[in-house]
Amino acid sequence: MKVAIDIRRVTEFGVGTYTRNVVRALSRLDHTNQYFLIGSPQKATEIGPLPPSFQTIALLDDGTTARGYIEFRAILKRLQCDLVHIPHLFWMPRTLPCPYVMTVHDLLEHMYRTRTRSSLRRSLHLHLTRRVLKGAGRILAVSKFTKSEIENVFGIPGSRIEVVYNAIDERFLHGHATDADRQVLAERYLIKYPFLLYAGSISPPKNLVRIIEAFSALKAELEKEGKFPDLKLIIIGDELSKHPDLRRTVIRSGVQNDVRFLGFIPIEMLRVFYDAAKIFVFPSLYEGFGLPPLEAMAHGTPVVTSTTSSLPEVVGNAAVLVNPENVFEIMRALLHLLLDQPVRDQMKKRCYEQAKKFSWDVSARRILEVYAEVAAAPRTPARLQAGETTRRVET
Question: What are the GO BP annotations of this UniProt entry (predicted)?
Answer without folding.
Answer: lipopolysaccharide biosynthetic process
